[in-house]
Amino acid sequence: MVSLEFFTEKDFSAVNYTLDEIQLQYTSTAEFALKRMTERNTGQEFPVTIFYNKNPAGFFTLDFGEDKLDLTDNHNSTLLRSLSINPQWQGKGIGKAAMLQIDDFVRKSFKDCDEIVLAVNQNNISAYELYLKVGYRYHGKTRIGRSGPQYLMYKKL
Question: Residue 37: its pLDDT value, please?
Fold first, then answer.
């Protein structure tokens, strides 16, 4: 069973897993994302822990700051960032199950949010296909990210 909860410090040791070089091209570790949040100190980014059978198994953040405006003109949107699943739990459908639950999580936690946006590297074909399967749309917009061209995707809530 997969569930989502706002990150707490007690989750850190479990979500502080190591990602391989390929995964690090496309996402950041929880440690890096949390450090970035602390340094930016905007109060507009919220870390979330993905649980699998009550065990912390993944991590992402929801960023309501200005960075989302690189992907959308919608001020009532959030930017999904730093999504990863612990390598020991990968291949069990946890990422897909989490992506299917994010909509309701956002609706319940952030009443004014009506869109989720994200950028996925064009070489990260499995992630791109997953996002399409769970309802994200791509309408031809791209940008250059730190590891090359990215598809800009969105999902209306």
Answer: 94
What region does 26 belong to: left with phi over 0, alpha with psi -120 to 50, or beta? alpha
DSSP assignment string, 68-92: GGGT-S-TTEEEEEEEEE-GGGTTS
List, in order, residues 6 or more apart from 101 with CB less than 8 Å away.
Answer: 2, 3, 4
Per residue in 127-150, pLDDT (tens digit) is 999 999 999 999 999 999 888 999
pTM, two decimal places: 0.94
- Residue given tokens 């990422």 in the structure block: 95
Helix (H, G, I), strand (E, B) or coil at 140: strand
Residue 113 phi/psi, 5-degree rounding, is -80, 130
The pLDDT value given to residue 155: 97
Residue with tokens 């959308």: 72
Structure tokens at 10: 């007690």
Confidence of residue 65 (pLDDT cuts 50, 70, 90): very high
User: What is the sign, positive or negative, of the torsion defined by CA atoms of 65, 66, 68, 73?
Assistant: positive
